[in-house]
Write a structure and sequence with these properties.
It is built from 4 helices and 4 strands, in the order E-E-H-E-E-H-H-H. By secondary structure, the chain is an alpha+beta fold. A hairpin with a 2-residue loop joins strand 3 and strand 4.
Length: 152
Amino acid sequence: MEHILHATDLVMDYSTQQATPNATHMLALNHVDFGIQAGESIAVMGPSGSGKSTLLHALAGIITPTAGNVMFRGANLARLSDADRTKLRRSAFGFVFQSGQLLPELPAIENIALPMMLGGASYQQATDMAMLWLERLGLRQLAQQRPGEMSG
């Protein structure tokens, strides 16, 4: 089966100084290869500072790696415009943020549905899709809970 998302030889080098002999480098990604097939679920795990968020941001086209390629459905993300990468994230990727990017006034189902509604889906279409994802993740019981009422 072919990968729907495939990264090859990703490097993310955060230099502390610009191109000097004493420049130090912090490699957040060090020649990482990654692939995921359609329908596959994964978890990215590791200690704090190991590059998990950097990897996910590179895979979603939020950041451009120092080296390597990220391909989604045959398209090289680095060759897409910012607007096209934004459209791709809205339509094809889902994010669960670790640092409170949820609206505290809205229940989980509406927080999940909101980006779809901003993309043109009706309230009913968006909440139906949001419920489907909550069910797939075994979280249906949290649909009407607000972020402050959920743990973890």
